[in-house]
Every structure is written in C-alpha cells, then in structure tokens.
Amino acid sequence: MLSSIHRALSAAALALAGLAFTAAPLHAQDKYPNRPIKMYVGFSAGSATDIVARVVAQYLSERLGQSIVVENKTGVGGSLAAEAVARSAPDGYTLLTVSSAIAVNPAVYPKLSFNIEKDLTPIALVGRLPTVLLVRNGFPAKSLTEFLTYARSHPKKINYGSSGVGGSTHLSTEYLATLTGTSFTHVPYRGNSQAVAALLGGEIDMVTDTILLAAPNIQARRVRALAISSQARSPLAPDVPTFAEAGLKGYDGSLFFGLMGPKNLPPEIVSRINRELNDLLKNSAELRERLQSAGGLELVGGSPDQFRDTLHKEVTLWADVVKNAHVTVAQ
C-alpha cells in the first residue's frame, strides 16, 4: 500500500513539474508586447502629426521589440482616429498619436461620441511645435509691436488666412486677438498651404504657420516673420524673436504632440511605453535630430500625469477661445 501511495505521489510530482515547465513559456508569451502594435493618426500622410508618429514609431518599435504600424484615419479634426482608439481593447496594441487638435475638438465638435479626457489614457507628451506669425512683405509693420499698434487702430482691417474654421491656425489667431484686444477678419481655406499661398500672392495680410513649414519661406524672404511661439528662438529661423522677446508675454500658440491609448490601459503598460519614450527623447541623438533640429519640435517628455494636466489645461483654454470667438462648425 505504501508503495502504491509512493507511486501516486511520484506521479503527482511529475505532473506538477510538467505544469511548472509549460507555465513558464506561456507566461513569457503573455509579456507585453508579443505582437505588432497599431498606431492611429487622425491626419493625412505628410502632416506634422503623421511625421511625429512615424519617427516615434520607428524608434519605439526597436525598444519594444515589436513592429509599430502607423495607420492614418482622417476626419472630424482627427476625432475619427481618436474614437477608434477609445473603442479599442485596453491591451496596449492600439495607440494614438495626437496633436493639439484633440484638445480643441470638444469645443468645436460638441456632439463627439466619446470624451477626450475620460475615454483615452495619456501616456507621454512628445513635444511642442512652435508657430510663427507671418505677414506679407508689403504689410506696413516690421515688428510685432508695430503690427499690434496697426491692428488696434484698424480693427477688422487685417485679413488672415487659416486651414479652416475651427482649425489650429484659426483658433491660435483668435487667441492672439483675445489676448491683445485686437480684431481681425478671418478668411478660411482648405488647408494651411492654401492660406500660405494666398499670403505669398498678397491676397491676405497674415497667416500663422508652424515653424517646420514656414522656415523655407522665411529663409527665402518670401514672407516677414514677426514672432515665434517658443521658449527660445528656433534653429530653423534664428533671426525671428519669440513672442516674449517681441513684447508679448503669455501667448503660446504652439501645437503639442503626444501618445495616448484607450481608457483602462494597464498601469504597467503605460509605464513601460512612457519610460522607453522618455529615454528616447533624452538619449537618442538620431530621434532628437529628426524631431528637434529637422522637425522644429521642442521636446518635452514627462510623466502620464503631466501630460494629463497639459491636456486638461488645453481643453479649458480652447473652450474659452471658441466661446469668445463664437466659433461654430457644422457636424
């Protein structure tokens, strides 16, 4: 009988050993990430958000050991892509590269089917892309001070172009107007490139553009740049003063870019991606070159909570701007 019990215990021990042996590979397979990751972008290929996403995806995939596939899902100011991520499984395999538009959209599109702050998880703020205030070469002002003086004495006489009603270049200009007690006449175009073309042709007086896209026109002296919304002068246009240097403190029309996921994303996955991305922003010379020197970004990084605070402040700011400027967009 004892021998029977001994044989039974031996068999049980072997079975447990077998389970322990097979459990290790199964656990390893469950380690994040173990398959390709999809990264949504709410704007077209070649846009600033798309460029940031593809640079981040390339270097982040090397750190995570899995490919990251960037997918463009355009529409409703980037909200279609955000909605797709908000509705996805919180497993870390569906991410979203966002721009400042995500903070503007709740005010511009009040009928969104999801909540920007409740249904998405902030992972990390990548950086900010400064914007530049541009005027046509023949405009009767050669500095920001002269421009604001002229604007105050000629209300509504300055025509400015934008990428469209509710777009970042529209609202950043209205923010400037609110902050400085000025008023301009808005001329919306289908994309900021059309607005810039109109500025070059002398059809309008003013445009706000990102430093990345404005730099060639500034360097060729096809436009006059009055100020840039960055903390320090940009290497892409070192002769252009910051708004603070030009006499206007407190204005920041820069666009932010960050990485988000769906709500309820596990803290360990958020922490892993945040840690790897922050290390890249700090220590990868190649990534820094592509985003900072070539792309014009001011790199930021930081914790998920810091990104959450930034997002909340931006949502609040643009809600006030939209309300004060009486901006409405058909849905």
Automatic annotation (TrEMBL):
Stored InterPro entries: BUG (IPR005064), Bug_dom1 (IPR042100)
Leader sequence segment: 1-28
Pfam families: TctC (PF03401)
Domain of life, source organism: Bacteria
Keywords on record: Plasmid, Signal
CDD domains: PBP2_Bug27
Similarity section: Belongs to the UPF0065 (bug) family.
Name the record gives this protein: Extra-cytoplasmic solute receptor
Gene source species: Cupriavidus necator (strain ATCC 43291 / DSM 13513 / CCUG 52238 / LMG 8453 / N-1) (Ralstonia eutropha)
